[in-house]
Amino acid sequence: MKITIVVDNEAENNLKKEWGFACLVENNEKVLFDTGASKEVLAYNAEKLGVKPESISKLVISHDHWDHTGGLGWALQNRKLKVYILEAFSPQLKQKLSGFEVIEVRELTEISKGIYSSGPIESADKYKLYEQALLLKTANGIVVVTGCAHPGLERIIEKAKQLGKVRAVIGGFHGFDKLEALCGIELIVPCHCTVRKKELAKAFPDKTLICKAGLTLEF
Ligand SMILES: [Zn+2]
Ligand SMILES: [Zn+2]
Question: Which of 2, 6, 90, 134 lies at a C-alpha separation of 20 to 30 Å from 140?
Answer without folding.
Answer: 6
